[in-house]
Amino acid sequence: MKKIRIGVIGIGDISDVYLNNLKKYDAVEVIACASRGLEKAQRKAVQHGIPKAYASGAEVIADPEVDLILNLTTPQAHYEYNLAALKAGKHVYTEKPLAMTYAQGKELVALAKEKGLLLGCAPDTFLGGRLQTIRELIDSGKLGHITGGGAYFIGHGHEFHHPAPAFFYQPGAGPLYDMGPYYITALLSLLGPVQRVCAMATKAADTRTVPSGPSKGQVLPVDVDTHINAILEFDSGTIVTLTCSFDVWDSEMPRMELYGTEGTVLIDEKAPISGPNLFGGDALLRTSAEYRWADPARSAAHVNTPWTVIPNHHPFNSISHAENPRGIGLVDMVYALAQHRKPRASGDMALHSLEVMECILKSAHEHIFCEPETTFERPAPLPLDFPASETAH
User: Fold this and answer.
1) If phi over 0 gives left and psi between -120 and 50 gives alpha, with beta otherwise, what is residue 302?
2) Helices assigned H by DSSP within the chain
3) pLDDT at 300
4) Which among 356, 362, 393, 324 has a CA at the least distance from the CA of 128?
5) Are 335 and 80 contacting, i.e. CB atoms less than 8 angstroms apart?
């Protein structure tokens, strides 16, 4: 297959993970990178052996040798660069979210289809070993029909650890747009499209003060909801509670759990950043046979059988934030291009996720049910031998 030549726009901290990972795959080659300053781009190019460095994203997009744009800019710039790249005839893979608004995302997806280009979007953590293991469990029927569930991103914001946390409390961020895409994309990959949404939202304070670090003492305006509760009804009939909050000091809630007619599966790590935004980690299972009332001895002692760790034989199981398989969604998109199929981390799914988030806020602010107009095809499971299985096509 033809090697796809990639141009990277935006070379912040996250870029090193992408660039290190992409070197592992013969199907892609990073040939250009750009920053807002040429010197920074040149340093990154030398660090990773990239032939070309540019002082602007526009220059990368204009490079005739670049086939695909990897957009790692801040969320406010996603739409601008994604649109320009598609207009220039480039395939696009972008960090989340696809755009700042559903209307912008809809325009991007329509343009990509009109021009016959592929559009992909992070997060690709749903392709990691833990969520693929849960997907396999669901598809096998061992859980029965999934009737409900819960997903909980619960923490106290970013001013305690981030050097420049102001953005997280402005439109386009907040807990829903910052971390929500990981949780919503995980649910979409497991359960399919959302049919209806209802929600309520609030914020604990109008300002926050940075307690430490380079911005210590800075007062941050809070212009977004920082505690959101939503109920998502899926086309399958599954009903899931979603909580995204920057207003909680600590919690004993699992990060995600799904309830089937034959059992429950959950992700139960307690750190605020250890849920579906990680590729690896354990998933726990308890079936109807392990319910304490199913056994008189356990029932009398009021003791359940311990949760079973589900054997995980899938690739991409890192639980590190500094070193993880981020970018496998892009690599899958490159193989999708060669095979004339839809990528797993597709623009359609990212657009649906974006619309669901917008529906959540619309429901909360207007006190209505909101029904998304978009849909998507649930992506196929990732092969156990990816990418070797893809090269056989």
Assistant:
1) left
2) 13-22, 38-48, 57-62, 75-87, 102-115, 129-140, 174-178, 180-191, 296-301, 328-339, 347-366, 388-391
3) 59
4) 324
5) no
Class of domain 126-309: alpha beta
* Cα–Cα distance for residue pair 286/140, rounded to 1 Å: 15
Amino acid at 8: V
pLDDT digits (tens, 9 = 90+) for 46-91: 999 999 999 999 999 999 999 999 999 989 999 999 999 999 999 9
CB 352 within 8 A of CB 193: yes
Residues linked to residue 263 through DSSP beta bridges, in sequence order: 260, 287
Give the residue among 196, 169, 189 at the shortest CA–CA distance from 345: 189
State whether residue 48 is helix, strand or coil.
helix
Contact in structure between 246 and 194 (CB atoms under 8 Å):
no
Of 69, 125, 79, the C-alpha closest to 99 is: 79
What is the C-alpha separation between 102 and 234, in angstroms, rounded? Answer: 19
- 4-121 has CATH 3.40.50.720 classification: yes
Provide CB contacts within 8 A for 367, sequence distance 6+: none
d(C-alpha 143, C-alpha 135), whole Å: 11
CA atoms of 132 and 333, how far apart (whole Å): 17
End-to-end Cα, the chain, rounded Å: 9
Q: What is the pLDDT of residues 360-377, one digit of tens each?
A: 999 999 999 999 999 999
Phi, psi for 334 (deg, rounded to 5): -65, -45
Predicted TM-score (pTM) of this structure: 0.94
Instruction: Tell me the two tokens of residue 208.
Output: 């926050």
Helix, strand, coil: what percent of the chain each, to 5? Answer: 35, 20, 45
Q: How far is CA 363 from CA 191, 196, 201, 236, in A?
A: 21, 10, 9, 21
- For the chain, the structural domain boundaries read 4-121, 126-309
Query: How far is Cα 158 from Cα 28, in angstroms, rounded to an integer?
Result: 34
What tokens were used for 387?
Answer: 């990418």
pLDDT the model gives residue 353: 98
pLDDT at position 393 over 70:
no
